[in-house]
Structures are given as structure tokens and as C-alpha cells.
Amino acid sequence: MVATTMSLSLTVLFFFLLISTVSRAQRNVWCVANSDATAEQLQDTIDWCCSDSGGFRDCTPIQPGGVCYEPNTLRDHASFVMNLYYQNEGSTKAQCDFSGTGTEVHDDPSHGPCIFVHY
């Protein structure tokens, strides 16, 4: 009886640890610009995400002097605003499409003081 109870307890514990690990891993997803996106597509994405149509994300971090201005590349700036949109709109593949220029990643793209949010 004790062995059965202990075995059941260990099984339940393993199950809960597995569930918490899986759900935690699913939350650690960011949206960034993919390597196939052109400069024009990236600029269009930045313009849209920072406009009223795109929900006017807070784009001050990618402006000169902002915490995400460096590195000063379209790909880095687009990735930052794409992720803001993605995280605030439900974090689904559809919110990371951006006409085929976005991709979901599991490695945190944050760098230095530039923090890519995830919820």
C-alpha cells in the first residue's frame, strides 16, 4: 500500500512538473523579422506598427537615444516593434506573420538594455 501510494505521488508530481515546464516554454516566444525580409518590407512594418493602424506601439525605444536604437538596423528595429505588436495582440502565429516577414523564436532576442517583452 505504501509503495503504491508513493508511486502514485511520484507520478502526480512528475505530471505537474511536466505541465509547468511545457506551459512555461510556450510563453517564452517572441516575434522577430525573418532573414528573408527586404529593407522595404521591414520599413513598411515599422511604419505600420508605429501608426494608428498598427495600434501605435510605443516606438520611442527604437528612436535615436532610445534603449533599442542600437544596433541601428532595420531588421533590429522591425523585430522590436513586431514583437510589441505580437505580444499585445495575443501571441499567435497570425500576429507574427507580417506578410510573411515575421517568425516566432524561442531564444530571447533582448540585448543589453533593450528588452523584448513577452507575456
Automatic annotation (TrEMBL):
UniProt key word Nucleus: no
InterPro entries linked to this entry: X8, X8_dom_prot
Domain X8 intervals: 29-116
UniProtKB keywords: Disulfide bond, Glycoprotein, GPI-anchor, Lipoprotein, Membrane, Signal
Record localization: Cell membrane
Protein origin, superkingdom: Eukaryota
Signal peptide range: 1-25
Gene Ontology CC terms, in alphabetical order: plasma membrane; plasmodesma; side of membrane
Topology class, membrane: Lipid-anchor; GPI-anchor
Name used for this protein in its record: X8 domain-containing protein
Organism expressing this protein natively: Brassica campestris
